[in-house]
Specification:
By secondary structure, this protein is mostly helical. Helix content is 78%, strand content 0%. It has three domains: 47 residues; 28 residues; 30 residues. Helix 1 runs antiparallel to helix 2.
Amino acid sequence: MMIAPVLIILGIIISMAARKSGAEAGKVKLVIPWFAVWFVVMSGINSLNIIPEAVVADINEVDTFLLTMAMTALGMETNAAKFKQAGIKPILLALLMFVWLLVGGYFVTKWAVALF
């Protein structure tokens, strides 16, 4: 859930850094991934409970289907040769990130449960 705000803040920081590095004011664009902005907007709208439950259920069904198709497409493009070509470093990085998220998620959850 924090990826959208992080992407938005990162976009603002990158734009500010580009301005400081001497880029022309008119040439520097605010680099914000719009899917993240719309994700935050739709999360807010959904939190207001103004969309009927039946519509939300239908949207979730379509969402699940589209996500399944996207992941299938990614999987169909992946083969063992690509892993071999990439080498061990990306695989180790993915493993490190997995462990980081697993352990970090455990402690954040433990902290949040104790807090509330």
